[in-house]
Amino acid sequence: MSDLMEPAASNVAEYSVSEISGALKRTVEDTFAHVRVRGEISGYRGPHSSGHAYFALKDDKARLEAVVWRGSFGKLAFKPEEGLEVIATGRLTTFPGSSKYQIVIEAMEPAGAGALMALLNERRLKLEAEGLFAAERKRALPFLPRVIGVVTSPTGAVIRDIRHRIADRFPLHVLVWPVRVQGETCGAEVAAAIEGFNAIAPGAKIPRPDLLIVARGGGSLEDLWGFNDEAVVRAAAASAIPLISAVGHETDWTLIDHAADRRAPTPTGAAEMAVPVRAELLAVLAAIEARSGAAISRTLQAERRAVGNLARALPSPDMLLALPRRRLDEADGALERNQRLLLGERRRRLAESAFQLSPSRLEAAIRDKRADLRHLDSVLIHRLDAGLRQQRHALDRLASALRPHVVAQRSGEARHRLVVASDRMDRAFAMLQDRRRAALAGAWRVASSLDPRQVLERGYAIVRGENDVPITRAEDLVPGSHFQIEFARGHRRAAVAGALDADVQPTARPAKGAKRARREQIEEVQGDLF
Questions:
Q1: What are 416-455's pLDDT values in tens digits?
Q2: What is the CATH number of the domain that holds 261?
Q3: Domain that includes residue 205, residue range
Q4: Is 137 found in the same domain as 34?
Q5: Which of 288, 417, 445, 500 is most buried (most C-beta within 10 Å)?
Q6: What's 153-164 look like in SS3?
Q7: Above pLDDT 70, what percent of the chain?
Q8: Are 138 and 70 in contact, with CB atoms under 8 Å apart?
Q9: How far apart are the first and last CA of the chain?
Q10: Euclidean distance between CA atoms 259 and 271, whole angstroms
């Protein structure tokens, strides 16, 4: 039983992880001791404090880590730049500690602007021509906003730095709109967040921000590419709320920086731009209050001195009141005389009014008023009767309209119209579907007939030369040149042009010197990669 439990013997050699890593390192360094690689610089942030430079070379399908040691960095003909396409010469090696391989660059020469930088520059020129980066479009930031909206990732260190900085300077309400700050959906989410903050109505349950901050930490050109999206730039330019862009570090630039009202070098710098320091404001207000109090005290003292000077120049109260007292005595005497005259006149008018209020005159006036009241009573009763008759007639018409059989008749008519409309809609939808299917089938037949792969299926082939350029003439095949033949279903075969037959005379035969120069040029371009 114990024999069955023992593992089967094997003659396969056992290696440790270090032995495997060392063997791979020696194999890679021996095989690729001198290579030339063409790619776009990505993730370059300048030389490290040690003097070495770390970045990556990439194309549209792969990425290769790269390092330039301090001794080689000082000998480079030009300094690396983010997004620049270069041809790097060096050797490949591995890093056993993390199972990675990289190129150690010894020389480097530019090969042109990278594809991403070219696309970025083209998009920048287009948006700038539309006036989205114009200085007159930019608005001043509010001095003391009540609510700040932040568009960033809710889990990164950026939002913590912004919140802590605002809390230290001037605590206020911060609204966070969570978005992805990297990846394919980054641009759409950031644009939607800016538009969403602008869509908040003033006085709504969620307060409308007075200032927006779009923030993200540093990264490579690819990491920050979402903030170069055209939708993000247009949303930032159309924002009715002032906006601060704080994407990346001091050396990082994106298109949203040009469209924003202000650009901050870091997310922490954006928080410092957004709010003032509360302690400094309190100190300024205290200084202003002290200066205002001192100015008021000086003004009151000056007014007291002026009043004292004026008081000494004024006459005494008895002198001022002597003339008014005399006038008051004269007015008192005149008032007594006028009062007696007024009382006599009022007694005379009262006697005349008493005569007018005799019983016979009052009875005649009462009879006239009673006659007027009887007339108004008859007119009012007549109008009330007419109004009641009209109301009864209207109620009768309404009751006849609301009878059950009338309501049932109208409901049946409405149902019939609804059924007819539903049938017509179903028939129209079916006809529309048939027309769309026929149009789609016709377009598919045309596309199938124009597909070049159909031609290859009939036995034809495509001859391609250098740079994948099709060769359409026999005289374009120079003896010794390399070309590929593409067959149906994407299969290719490489070949080398041989000597022409004796009966076939080339139209233009290159000289021996030209062939030798072309061979030397090919060897110079290719180098000794393999």
A1: 888 888 889 989 988 998 888 888 888 888 877 777 777 7
A2: 3.40.50.261
A3: 119-276
A4: no
A5: 500
A6: CCCCHHHHHHHH
A7: 88
A8: no
A9: 56
A10: 19
